[in-house]
Amino acid sequence: MSRGKIRRPLPEVSADPRIAVSLTVNGEALTREVSVRTLLSDFLRHELGLTGTHVGCEHGVCGACTVMIDGVAARSCLTLAMQASGCRVRTIESVAAEDGTLHPLQEAFRDCHALQCGYCTPGFIMNILSHFESGEPVDLSEEGIRDVLSGNLCRCTGYQGIVAAYRQAAARLALR
Amino acid sequence: MSTRSFGARIRRNIDPKLLRGEGSFVDDIPLPSPLHAAFVRSPFARARIRSVDAAAARAHPGVAAVYTCDEIGALDIELPQLIPHPSMTDPRTQRPLARGDVFHVGQPVAMVVAVDRYTAEDAAALVDVDYDPLPVEVDLERAVMDGAPLVHATHPNNVAAHFRQVSGDPARAMAQAEHVTRIRVQVDRSTAAPMECRAVAAMFDAVTGELTVWDGTQAPISVRGALASILGLDEDKVRVVAPDVGGGFGQKVYQFYPDELLVPMAARALGRPVKYIEDRRENFIGSSQERTQIHEIELHARRTGEVIALRDLFLHDTGAFIPYGIAIPQVASTSIAGAYRIPNIEVEFRCVYTPTVPVTPYRGCGRPQATFAIERALDQLAEELGLDRFEVRRRNLVADHEFPLLRSGLLFADGLPVSLDSGQYHRALALLAERLGAAGFAEEQELARGQGRYLGLGLAFYVEGTGLGPYEGGHVRVHPITGKVYVNTGLTSQGQGHDTVFAQIVADQLGVAVEDVIVVEGDTKAFDWGVATFASRAAVVSGNAIHQSAALVRAKAIAAAANMLEVDAEAIDLREGAAWVRGTNRHVSLAAVATATNPLRYAFNEAAKAATQFAPASRHDGPALRPGEHPGLEATDYYSPPCATWAYGVHGGLFEVDPVTCAVKVLRYVCVHDCGTMINPTIVEGQVLGGIAQGFGGALYERIEFDEDGNPINANFVDFLIPYATEVPPVEILHLETPSPLNPLGVKGVGEAGCIPVGAVVASGIEDALRPLGGAPFRHVPITPSMIHAAVAGT
């Protein structure tokens, strides 16, 4: 399009009904007005700019979009933003320290080459973290670890590094 | 040099940002008020389009534009066929938007651009397309029969290409054979399924006239070429960036997906950023797939098991179009003799159009099929001759002294004859046998059978031609302010860790820390000479180019530092980010050397101030730069491989099969692997392990299912079974390192290796486990529980 041409005005918004959503994200209370059908994943990524939460399948199978809702791992692609009203949502952006220092689980992923393209990684981290923080006993057997990981798909690593990272992080965090 | 980083297990530079959620995948890149695209796709495998009515979609609130083939100007063409070959006649390629006919379910017919994806999808549903469905045949063997419905009227029997290659004198050798083993094997259609689907975003800057495209592609330079050519733009005004890309495995180098051209076109026409983020269903029905081949392979042998001739005849499913030419079947046909001496080979294939998603390489690219054919045939030969499966391989493997082994007459995908360059094949097999405990396994198996348990051992060898040309480049520059080293190359990363292995190569040359080497790939504004990421070629081709460039920069740095420190060049040692006079404490930082080699410098920082305390970096009279001299510490060089270099390996596993539930349990899995000199063993293992996981997918789970009308019926992650952590077994990896004699670093590619032999290993193991039940052999992957049930039940 050349600069000399008068542009046809383009639409800015859809005709969707909108609703105010109030929730806490990574410790910060906020209110935003969104289309009623906005998925939590889209809300986090495009309304709030928290693009660390990735979307891999949009039907709840791959686990890439996993976040914590009130401390429990949840698929943000199967949750409407408005369903998270009043909830505490935690995303990958909250895991490292303010100065960027990696959490022991993130450090373990790096040490064990538990990521390659990194697209599925935030989902794995949030899933494992919710498990670590649940207070439930941590089963460090090969089968026990793989069972925890069985809600997340990774197409790059073959999972071996992720299993090792889980074990290393559990040891560093003195989880049993 | 201080500690050598080449060969070390170094953690990846890219990891911290990805782990913090700070990656920049296409959809993560913030754009001002972007519009979103959605596609109207064909619901029919083959149909004529009577009419397209987009009026209701255009009137829908929030819609900015709807494009059909009538509204896309120069893009309304059959896209170029990029890899021509005389075996193809009139090769058919895709149109960005269908005109008149559709050729597979999922083919784009119209593109809707709206304020958000939700609205764009609503409007796409309002586009009224009137189709006249046509008969189809999706079965490969029936598709080539006379009278089968045609995908393209231009191609009788649906044959897209027909090619035969011969090495040695197979007819003569066959006449001398004492035994012939003949089997039919089949590998089914699968898909790469990268975790990030494909994505394209574009923004046009009316002030500079520059079109910027962020594309999750493996080949940004050629995407730029296509956009500039087809849209009639100056190349310099088109910038294509492949940012962080969430896996590719071949699928992201289609050249060109409709959206890669249509989205930039719309962004330019509308004056607003436009993005298209493919969803998972679209990835199944719109992005390329690979694997279906049916081989009829014959081994002509002596009674000793020595194979003296091989004949292979196969069909290759190319889907509705053949944009990538015959690359896949050509790789399969030239890999068919595997790691074996077999001096006489006749191999012939037909590429067959089917009304399905087009086929282009998916990690492995024909090698898993070829390996499945030769390895299953060798197992059968062993069975028929009463030989051990390890022994039959020993009698045919290329011996160390026989390298290079030339298969004249077999032209590989680079157009050059196959020549296996180096390896220790016998040692690899011995290592596998030892680690797997093959010698004592029969006893273990017998014991288990007494307890009603069915154990089996499977193995398969493979070779992988890697590091294909024509070339790649490397640009290395020491930044004068920070002393950090910037490296560019033209290919791209989708998670392989290039930023770390290339940094390791450079760090050793320049004596800097690996984390101080910053690799920028996949941005045509940073470096735009090169090819793309495919064929396990990055470490070989870009790696050697970067190595050469770094060596040039090293020589410049040493010469300049010698001048500055007033010593001979031989006295200079580069380490810890500085140039040192050997055996003394006298040194100058690399940043200061980089500053001093720039005739115009500003004393903005410590390095610049330091630079002035030394003698001049260049000793000559006259102008600041003598003719031919360049400022700074910077160099660009290119590497063009003489031919492919051949990696190889052998995998083996111990399996338990339950003949009642038909469940398969992997008890042990061992991989012996050799990709030449390793730059970073951890990254090599990551590549191998990821490949093996995909291999298990192809061996036991992953198959794109089509109904008889050509509808894909499992186009989602619920029904298409990708292995989770619970399906992939722990893998034991043993490395051999036989340097390639073909390149200065001695490296071979590793990207595809892992996936290649797994199907053959699993089939071999299941067959071995069920042998006492007299079941049918396993010559078709993926092996489903139903197939095991049928084999055991004898149905």
From TrEMBL, chain A:
Its EC number is 1.17.5.2. Residues 19-95 form the 2Fe-2S ferredoxin-type domain. InterPro entries: 2Fe-2S-bd (IPR002888), 2Fe-2S-bd_dom_sf (IPR036884), 2Fe-2S_ferredoxin-like_sf (IPR036010), 2Fe-2S_ferredoxin-type (IPR001041), 2Fe2S_fd_BS (IPR006058), Beta-grasp_dom_sf (IPR012675), Diverse_Oxidoreductases (IPR051452). It comes from the Bacteria. Keywords: 2Fe-2S, Iron, Iron-sulfur, Metal-binding, Oxidoreductase. GO terms for molecular function: 2 iron, 2 sulfur cluster binding; caffeine oxidase activity; metal ion binding. PROSITE patterns: 2FE2S_FER_1, 2FE2S_FER_2. This is Caffeine dehydrogenase subunit gamma. It is an enzyme of class 1 (oxidoreductase). The keyword Oxidoreductase applies.
Automatic annotation (TrEMBL), chain B:
Residues 20-135 form the Aldehyde oxidase/xanthine dehydrogenase a/b hammerhead domain. It holds the Pfam family Ald_Xan_dh_C. GO terms for molecular function: caffeine oxidase activity; iron ion binding. SMART domains: Ald_Xan_dh_C. The keyword Oxidoreductase applies. Its EC number is 1.17.5.2. InterPro entries: Ald_Oxase/Xan_DH_a/b, Ald_Oxase/Xan_DH_a/b_sf, Ald_Oxase/xanthine_DH-like, AldOxase/xan_DH_MoCoBD1, AldOxase/xan_DH_MoCoBD2, AldOxase/xan_DH_Mopterin-bd_sf. Its cofactor is Mo-molybdopterin cytosine dinucleotide. SUPFAM superfamilies: CO dehydrogenase molybdoprotein N-domain-like, Molybdenum cofactor-binding domain. Keywords: Molybdenum, Oxidoreductase. NCBIfam families: CODH_aero_grp5. This is Caffeine dehydrogenase subunit alpha. The gene is cdhA_3.
